[in-house]
Write a structure and sequence with these properties.
Blueprint lengths: L8 E4 L8 H15 L6 H22 L6 H15 L6 H9 L10 H9 L3 E6 L3 H12 L5 E4 L10 H11 L6 E5 L2 H9 L3 E5 L15 E3 L2 H8 L2
Parallel strand pairs: 1-2, 1-4, 2-3, 4-5, 5-6
Length: about 230
């Protein structure tokens, strides 16, 4: 049997898979850097911010001091990136850059692909974001009616902690092999596969995959390719 034949539910990562983070945040970052007269490019500042955010999330998992939440670790990472770049900033600057997260936009291939997939699968968001934040993004920014939106808050840890994927399977009342994780983040694919999920890697960034036994079942470039493979 094809490994994905028993899949009935697709769970989607939000940040970087559905939502175009760099495309959405580059404008606010460019305006901030112009105001400061900085020579640093917005793309470089974003790369530093995103890299540090991942470290903050991993530390949050490892230190077992309570789940801080997605926006809080993003704020901490921004402070680190600004200080690392020796950029002057105020509390208002930080608040403005963090407010821009409310205006994230989806990649152009996403909504059409979701509509095609919905005819065959239950579609669920499984994301590191806070519940209220994800509900806002799904309703007002993605503008798609998902069957369910699940936050890692309910597991008290960030992906790829195993508790996240086990919690989602329990809430969805599904066996892990009946769920496919769809993510552009290889660590997310690896985490889901290690918990028995099937997985699709949306290779949006042309990056190498993790050096691991837990490989994706399928690799696609965007949601159009995903729908073409899963709905044929």
């Amino acid at each position: 049997m094809v490994p994905t034949a028993q899949v009935r539910t697709l769970v989607f990562d939000a940040f970087g898979t559905i939502l175009d983070l760099e495309g959405s945040l580059s404008g606010p970052l460019e305006r901030f850097l112009r105001q400061k007269g900085a020579s640093l490019e917005a793309g470089e500042l974003w790369a530093r911010w995103r890299y540090r955010q991942r470290i903050e999330q991993y530390q949050d998992n490892l230190l077992l001091m309570g789940h801080a939440g997605y926006l809080e670790v993003a704020r901490r990472a921004l402070l680190y990136a600004l200080r690392q770049a020796a950029l002057p900033f105020t509390g208002s600057d930080v608040d403005g850059l963090m407010e821009a997260w409310r205006e994230l936009t989806p990649f152009p291939d996403v909504v059409d692909g979701l509509h095609k997939l919905k005819a065959r699968y239950r579609l669920v968001v499984l994301s590191n974001g806070e519940s209220w934040f994800l509900e806002h993004l799904a309703r007002n920014r993605i503008q798609f009616d998902f069957d369910r939106v699940i936050s890692v808050e309910q597991a008290g840890a960030f992906k790829p902690h195993p508790a996240v994927y086990r919690m989602a399977a329990r809430l969805l009342e599904a066996e892990p092999h009946e769920i496919m994780m769809v993510s552009a983040n290889s660590f997310d694919v690896m985490g889901a596969r290690s918990c028995g999920y099937r997985a699709a890697w949306v290779d949006r960034y042309g990056l190498p995959f993790e050096e691991t036994l837990f490989r994706p079942d399928i690799v696609v470039g965007d949601f159009g390719e995903l729908a073409a493979q899963l709905c044929r």
